[in-house]
Design brief:
Helix content is 52%, strand content 6%. The chain is of the alpha/beta class. The chain folds into two domains: 135 residues, Collagenase (Catalytic Domain) (3-Layer(aba) Sandwich); 92 residues, no CATH class. The strands form two sheets. It has a four-stranded mixed β-sheet with strand order 1-2-6-5. Helix 3 packs across helix 5, helix 5 crosses helix 7 and helix 8 crosses helix 9.
Length: 300
């Protein structure tokens, strides 16, 4: 009993001692008790400031941040060298292309204010994986950065795994600002299949430019836009021809859809998608002919 009393008394005395200390040394109200690790800026950070943050108010995050990651998936930090190259190609093939065709004020207004990179793809249980996402018109996540060197040796791979994703997600952002017309939703009607899109076949003859376009009218619109501006007219016409093969009308359906996309971009944003495609493909040719150094971090 006495031991218990002394224990309680000791705790009480310690509390008084702490109180006494706090009275003698009050906490500075202007000093935060939360400390945040400060990262010393490297040459890549300075390049990003000069090419993203200062001209566009866009953050380009390549260091891993748990709060920016989707914890539903197993995510990993992005490779540094891959991040440097990714930052260059997004700027050169996407942002600069819109600057050229629509003007820098358009890009400043509509482009997302954050890019966030992760190293691995976001794998889903059905065997598919997510190349990128757009969140509330403010952020684009790009995954699979650790594989950039593997999938950037030719234009088709670079577009499929990375650049088309940026244009696809940016189309969603534009749609969130100004919705596309109801008439587009009615062209393919009930032919959309949701999450079963990866099991579909004969997409072209059914009027879809890709498998993923069959997910929903929202994804159909974004796929049409992003695939159109990253491929040549010759390639596009081959798809239309294949869609109309053997008496089918899929090619005609795709043509009807792309005309809605064309009018939407021109009427709402004064963007000619053929001019945009020309700008993107010209830059793409420059990239693969060695005219652009995607590792140069010189701040000009």
């Amino acid at each position: 009993m006495n031991n218990k009393f002394y224990s309680i008394f000791a705790v009480f005395a310690a509390g008084l001692a702490c109180l006494s200390c706090s009275e003698k040394d009050p906490v500075d109200p202007d000093r935060s008790v939360i400390t945040i690790d400060k990262v010393e800026k490297n040459e890549f950070d300075l390049w990003l400031e000069a090419n993203y943050l200062t001209p566009y108010n866009i953050e380009f995050k390549y260091r891993y941040e748990q709060n920016e990651s989707d914890l539903s998936y197993w995510t990993t930090p992005a490779d540094y060298n891959g991040s440097v190259k990714m930052a260059h190609v997004v700027k050169y093939l996407c942002i600069d292309s819109y600057d050229e065709v629509a003007g820098i004020n358009f890009t400043r207004k509509y482009f997302p204010k954050m890019f966030y990179l992760i190293g691995e793809w976001e794998f889903k249980s059905g065997g598919t994986y997510i190349l990128g996402t757009a969140e509330s018109g403010k952020k684009i996540l790009l995954s699979g950065i650790d594989y950039f060197d593997k999938y950037s040796t030719n234009a088709e791979d670079l577009n499929h795994y990375y650049i088309k994703t940026v244009h696809h997600e940016f189309t969603h952002i534009l749609n969130q600002n100004i919705d596309y017309p109801q008439s587009f939703r009615e062209i393919s009607g009930d032919k959309y299949v949701g999450d079963d899109w990866n099991t579909t076949g004969d997409n072209l003859i059914n009027g879809f430019i890709s498998k993923y376009a069959r997910h929903s009218h929202k994804e159909d619109f974004a796929e049409l836009m992003s695939i159109y501006v990253t491929h040549t007219d010759a390639w596009w016409q081959e798809q239309i021809t294949a869609g109309n093969a053997d008496g089918n009308t899929g090619g005609d359906i795709i043509t009807t859809k792309i005309e809605v996309v064309r009018d939407y971009m021109l009427d709402n944003f004064n963007i000619d998608i053929d001019a945009l495609r020309s700008a993107i493909l010209t830059r793409q040719n420059h990239l693969f002919s060695g005219k652009v150094d995607i590792t140069d971090l010189t701040v000009r």
